[in-house]
Design a protein that fits this description.
Shape: flat
Number of domains: 3
Helix content: 40-55%
Strand content: 15-25%
Number of strands: 12
CATH architecture of the largest domain: 3-Layer(aba) Sandwich
CATH class of the largest domain: Alpha Beta
Structural class: alpha/beta
Distance between the termini: 14 Å
Radius of gyration: 21 Å
Mean pLDDT: 95
CATH superfamily of the largest domain: 4-hydroxy-3-methylbut-2-enyl diphosphate reductase, catalytic domain
Bound molecules: iron/sulfur cluster
Order of helices and strands: EHEHEHEHEHEHEEHEHEHEEH
Amino acid sequence: MLNIEIDEHSGFCFGVTTAIKKAEEELQKGEKLYCLGDIVHNRIECDRLEKLGLITINYEEFCKLHNAKVLFRAHGEPPTTYEIAQKNNLEIIDATCPVVLKLQQRIKKKWQETSDDNSQIIIYGQSGHAEVLGLVGQTHGTATVIEKSSQISQLAKEKDTYIYSQTTKSLEGYKQVVSEIKKHINPDKQCESFNTVCGQVANRLDGIGKFAQSHELILFVCGKKSSNGRILFDECKKMNPNSYQIESPDDIDLSITKGVKSIGICGATSTPKWLMENCRQAIINYNNK
Ligand code: SF4
């Protein structure tokens, strides 16, 4: 008897859930709604919303848009995006996640308190990621983004240093980088770190590892651009080498499910539950043939 379990803790975090709900509410009113960037790092969910009328635009298109309604997604935006919106008479539906918003405010406050040549703000995150651009924007572009330990040697040693993390980075990775930055900075300088990894991501890591261990085969459903997806999938793979990342039911090599007794389906904070359900159904259909 084949047992297929969907991880109850996988699926949209509250930031993404709220952004999608806001988009759906606006679309129900029948008005034209643009979204700056993919509303979620999941092409299939974006396609679903685009079929309901959501129009995804990039920054170039946004800059040329006038007199329209635009949704800002959970990742948040830098102040310059708000300035453009005001200049172009755009109505903003702001779905910035409250956790990201709070982090933006903290970074801005720290930058205002320390914006002199003797201090530096470091953000541990993925360079070019929308959330990171929003965070760096709070410092007028002066914060330094660190993606990996090898970049630490380039940091100034003789400055007071304040370290933050992109919300969707791994806590383990953040702690590692902080400990190396602390060794790098001159001991007579301040070096403060603030754990700003989102609990919705940090708390899932342990759970998903245990979930992965409890099944023979793991299918991790996630878009390729998802930052936390990469971290969560790596954990699955570490705990259960028989783990595969897929974007949709079409990606499942169904032959590998033959003869397997227990399959776990899980995903990232950007993976819709309905998509995991569709994966389960595809496996059931195949095995009932
Ligand atoms: S992962 Fe956390 S910070 Fe990021 S959108 Fe979700 S709830 Fe907000």
